[in-house]
Amino acid sequence: MIINNLKKIFKNLKLFFSYRELLWNLAYREINQRYKQSILGYAWVVLNPLFQLLVLTFVFSTIFRISSYNVPYIIFLIVGLLPWNFFVQSLSSSTNALVSNSSLITKIYFPREILVYSTIIAKMIDFFYSVLILIIFFIFYKINLNINAFWVIAYFLIQLIFTAGLSLFLSSFNLFYRDIQYLLNLIISMWFYLTPIIYPVEQFPEKYRFIFSINPMSVIINGYRQTVLGGGEPNYKSLISIFIFSLVFFMIAFLYFKKQEGKFADYV
Questions:
Q1: What pTM was computed for the model?
Q2: Domain count, the chain
Q3: What are the DSSP calls for 215-231, one per residue?
Q4: Which domain, by its residues, includes 195?
């Protein structure tokens, strides 16, 4: 059964590749329309995380005085906050991807997952722009990096796989049950505080730290910090485990999405 599912996935990936032009056009449309009538336009991609970063830095470094691994707190925060924002924005947009493109679903055939992937690509472009903030602060505070910082590429790819899988689930669930988009906001709010973004793991009560081991985003963000700020090699056991989990999760989500695909036109 596993082999048959793998064959089905590869067959769909081949079909998906033939629609790559549509994927890029949808992603471009998502990017182009977002700030079409905005005065500052795409500058908001940088300004939004920058203001969020400054406010959180003031609150948690000045008022609550959270420790930050011997680096300026704003550096500690930004390494976790930027990938988290990419994750949240991808989920929020992709959850409504099928609903907001109902006219396309009912008129023409194409692999419906393209609608989900195009929103993630658009948010990924936003993420790459927002990384400019990270670079500026690294230069300002003279943060030195070594070769282990390149491990962030592996962690980012794992995050991308996990995000795509969860987005496929949420977009299909939201099409059948519109409450999902509202429930998602509640879950993300709780998820944020249960992920070591604004605080280091060591400041979380030890008896509750098992939460981090079952939270994929905790493993990923800790991996970012360990390789970028710590300058050390990643925890290979955690890296392999989160990769396998994300890949299996994506495969399950993809198969579920394709199984439900035939019903989408009846619910839009």
A1: 0.91
A2: 1
A3: -HHHHHHHHHHHHHTS-
A4: 2-267
